[in-house]
Design goal:
Elements: E1 9-12, H1 45-58, E2 65-69, H2 79-92, E3 98-104, H3 111-120, E4 123-127, H4 132-138, H5 148-160, E5 165-171, H6 179-188, E6 193-198, H7 206-210, H8 249-264, E7 270-271, H9 272-281, E8 298-301, E9 306-308, E10 319-322, H10 328-332, H11 335-346, H12 350-353, H13 358-361, E11 371-372, E12 378-380, H14 384-393, H15 395-406, H16 414-418
Parallel strand pairs: 1-2, 1-8, 2-3, 3-4, 4-5, 5-6, 6-7
Antiparallel strand pairs: 8-9, 9-10, 11-12
């Protein structure tokens, strides 16, 4: 069985795009339109076994193999599906360290789920957008009813069984206005690892319309599309969805939380982007794909075994193949996927390459690079000013924390230096 040239990660969608919620801003729900009517969005036992066996075998070296279960909503598969997955991991693990990360909307979690997660050491991520009013603005069920109470019930089940969990909060047009309220709330419910994901979606373009989708597809390649095909939506552009975060708001949101965190919670609370930033100031490799120079090693596999270049690129022209028919390692290392990953760097406009914060930002996610620079060059990130402002804002404290680390001290000491 073949092995990939370098480690890679799969975002696994055992229930495909199926979900029990109907979140207004979700970009994945509509992916049901890419499948035939009547499709049963459930991964079969055959596909699961092939996935587990080949994913373990195709990852080189002895680093942990991390199974990232997402959706749609993975709890729709039921606990027994994941019991099978764990049993297969043990069968094909061959001494490798296997880890499981599970991202859920939390509404279906109960004591059975929590006991299973605890027994098998799953790290659980719960999607929650803040206090009731902010969460329920967009995160509703299929009947349009609020979901806050159900999510909190799921979190309480995790707590009862002492399951490690983190929170994923979407920064949309509403939540962007309440950074400290959201931060206090997340700390109050016991989250000590936080992710803040910006919501950036446009109305459909020609390709999306052809695929019966209501949201725009990413810029092609991800190299920039021809000039005539790349627009420059402003904060008030009708092309942007009304729930998308406005330029400037995301950067201010991050900076406000950082100012609170750096004075009170360093070492106690881990915020993904802040941890990544410290790594950048230390000159360390790795981090998250959004701020890596190249991408292409984080792919998405659908319920039927179809493999796509990225979770944000589940579109027909980014389908690499099917793991039931082609070796996983060969698909991951294919010329198409290599070109996709290198395109993140190759398509950066000169403004990004010359930017003093390029080392930290690396242009952001290619999906969001549909803007033009002032001199008309395509490929600029919609959130460019946000990232520039945020990384410039944290420059001095990051330098101080990096220096503390290099001298064998803890970065948490910065709290005494700033207070």
């Amino acid at each position: 069985m073949s092995t990939a040239k370098a480690p890679f990660h799969l975002m696994i969608k055992p229930a495909g795009p199926a979900c029990n919620l109907d979140c207004t801003y979700c970009f994945y729900l509509e992916k049901e339109q890419l499948f035939d009517r009547g499709t049963r969005f459930r991964m079969t036992d055959e596909t699961l076994e092939t996935l587990v066996r080949d994913y373990i075998a195709a990852n080189p070296g002895d680093a942990p193999v991390v199974f990232g279960w997402q959706g749609g909503e993975p709890t729709l598969m039921g606990v027994d599906f994941f019991r099978k997955a764990v049993a297969l991991q043990k069968r094909y693990g061959a001494g490798r360290v296997i880890e499981n990360a599970f991202q859920t909307n939390g509404t279906c979690l109960d004591d059975e789920w929590a006991a299973f997660f605890k027994e098998h050491g799953f790290l659980v991520g719960v999607s929650i957008d803040g206090p009731r009013a902010l969460h329920d603005k967009y995160r509703v069920n299929k009947g349009g009813k609020p979901t806050f109470d159900a999510v909190m019930g799921g979190i309480e089940a995790l707590k009862r069984h002492q399951v490690d969990f983190n929170t994923l909060t979407c920064v949309n047009r509403e939540t962007a206005q309440k950074p400290l309220e959201i931060y206090r709330f997340l700390r109050g419910i016991g989250s000590t690892f936080l992710q803040f994901i910006p919501i950036v979606e446009r109305r459909p373009d020609a390709r999306a319309t052809d695929w019966r989708l209501s949201l725009a597809s990413p810029p092609e390649g991800p190299r920039p599309a021809p000039a005539a095909a790349v627009d420059k939506p402003s904060a008030a552009s009708p092309r942007m969805t009304p729930w998308s975060v406005k330029p400037g708001d995301y950067g201010r949101f991050l900076s406000a939380i950082f100012d609170r965190w750096v004075r009170h919670d360093v070492g106690r609370v881990h915020i993904q982007l802040f941890d990544v930033a410290l790594g950048k100031w230390l000159g360390l490799p790795g981090g998250i794909c959004v701020h890596a120079e190249t991408c292409g090693r984080a792919l998405a596999v659908e319920h039927n075994g179809d493999l796509y270049s990225c979770d944000h690129y589940v579109y027909p022209d980014h389908r690499l193949g099917n793991i039931l028919k082609e070796p996983l390692a060969a698909l991951v290392d294919s010329d198409r996927q290599v070109a996709f990953g290198l395109g993140k760097l190759d398509s950066l406009p000169r403004r990004c390459l010359d930017c003093p914060m390029h080392f930290a930002c690396a242009g952001g996610c290619p999906k969001h690079r549909f803007e033009r620079t002032a001199d008309g060059e395509p490929g600029l990130n919609y959130l460019c000013d946000d990232y520039l402002g945020f990384f410039a804002h944290v420059d001095r404290p990051m330098r101080l924390m990096a220096q503390l680390y290099r001298t064998g001290r803890t970065p948490a000491e910065i709290m005494g230096m700033l207070n």
